[in-house]
Specification:
The protein is built from 4 helices and no strands. With 127 residues, the protein is mostly helical.
């Protein structure tokens, strides 16, 4: 019975982190869109900044929503799910989803940032 409750709580924490990350990334991308409109940077700059926004969003979302118990593994899963959700959301907005080798790098970076954010958040939080 306890395993089922732990699994349910873990899934809710990971899903909450993904939703918070999606909201943070949408806000960050909206702010960055103003910069893009004004200065028209190259695609490499846009892709790099998007990856940085996703990674920062995964870190912050996992730090805010993942609890202490097995925080690293929850953060890794939540960070990867954050990147997948953001890719799907921006694919729906833009009309196309491009799964390239850069996506794999963003997925790994999001998972690592999510894991680190979860560790930091769980150590700073008093339960």
């Amino acid at each position: 019975m306890m395993r089922r409750e732990f699994f349910r709580r873990t899934c809710l924490e990971v899903l909450r982190a993904a939703l918070i990350c999606a909201a943070l990334c949408l806000a960050g991308e909206a702010l960055f869109a103003v910069f893009i409109r004004a200065f028209a940077p190259s695609y490499a700059v846009i892709a790099g900044v998007n990856a940085a926004i996703e990674s920062a969003g995964a870190f912050a979302a996992c730090a805010l929503s993942v609890r202490r118990e097995r925080a690293l593994f929850k953060g890794l899963a939540a960070g990867a799910l954050c990147v997948i959700c953001d890719t799907l959301v921006f694919g729906m907005i833009g009309g196309a989803i491009a799964l390239t080798a850069f996506f794999t790098l963003k997925l790994l970076l999001g998972a690592v940032c999510g894991g680190l954010g979860a560790l930091l958040g769980s150590n700073l939080r008093r339960e």
